[in-house]
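Dear colleagues,

I hope this message finds you well. In preparation for our joint manuscript, I am sending the Regulatory protein YycH domain-containing protein (Halobacillus halophilus) sequence together with its predicted structure, so that both groups work from identical material. I would be grateful if you could confirm receipt.
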Amino acid sequence: MNMETMKSVILVILIALSLVLTVALWNYQPSSEIVEEGQEVIDTTQLDGEENDLVSLVEPEQFVFHERGASYSYEDPAEKTAMYDRMKQWELLNVDETPAQPSFDEDSHVVEAVFPEELPLKVLENIFTVSTGELSETQVFNRLFFIHGHDDNSSSFYQVLAVDSTDDVAPAKLRATIDEDYGSQLFNELDDKNDLIEQIALDGSISLLGSSEIENTIYLPEGRVAYPEEVLQTTPIPLVPIQNDLFPPNAVVSSSSINGHRRLATTDRRLDVLDNETRLKYEYMIPNRANPSPLLEYDLLTRSINDVNNHVGWTNTFYLDSISSTMEKATYRMHYNGLPILSSETNVEIMSMKYEQGEIQEYIRPLVIFERYPYDNTSTDELASGEEVRDFLTNTDKYNLEEVEGVKIGYQLKEQRPNLAYSLFPGWFVKLSGSWVPLEMDELRQDEEVS
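The corresponding structure tokens are as follows:
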């Protein structure tokens, strides 16, 4: 063998060895790693958040107390949460899932719990102790009515009515009773109204009282209310725990940068880090299968909550915002000071999960934790009254009142410096075609700095 041939053979051997080592490095998954004190363990699947449960994430938006033609609601959102926490200890008795439709007279004592979305009746098993068998997963409700009445012997009783207020034919879906001690916890709030503010209906009078009809009433505080502006600082959420939870253990993950966004990918999964690394979007390209079985709403709720719990991913205060079995999607919205964050430039306040064939097909969430900036110069905004908002929406040409799906007070989140600070501004919002947008009241003063 001459020298040139020997060189060629050695070169071929070296190239082959290099290819083998390259493939081995690509597929190598270390079984353990020495970690210095304080350093994050590389294979952790937990964030520095909390686990959550269904009953905490479906808290009512509002309790409305109806008495002698007037209606009231809690002024402080913390009082609403405290009442809901007490409700979780109650038991539903004498449950009837085929109730007669109700009617209320002007003297009725009724408390209405308004939920942000239609929920399966089965959710009541999570909120209360239920004395009957399993409740329906297909019948839905969006309001609970607690009714204080008296029988022919003047004995006091308390009923609970689960209602779908969007159903014009048979809105009542379930009737039950609760113990007098439980009912009095709720109705005693009317004895001292210091914690309550009067409510008015967007479309005029509150039709619940003196009517046999239950409508999807939108309640507004009659007078002006004030909420603080806030400045928030952010702490980044580590990507490794989410990556390890969503990608298979032995997956070969490639990393790249596309249009300034970081991307981690396998053959069928993609994880994009977006918007100055403040938001994550995960996608799983699931192969098509024949006759897929979509998840019902209750399964969507429990599955989405458990999937976030797997990496302890509830890193701020979230509540259910919407759920759809048609789209197989559950969306949760961040809240602050008891108010929903209804607007931002990048939707960083939203956490959503979309499913296909029982697997997460899309997962969108923030990659930052929001915390109050520690300084004392917080200002307070006094907002237009509910009466002013109602008059404006009734008389303006800017909005069609029949197309308004909701009106509420919430926060607008605005970024001040990239990745450093955000400001929260309270204001009125209106829901149009399924989306919340700031209510533009050119003719009215939207807010006033009072402190």
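For the figure legend, we might mention the following. The radius of gyration is 27 Å. Residues 374-449 form one domain.

With kind regards,
E.M.
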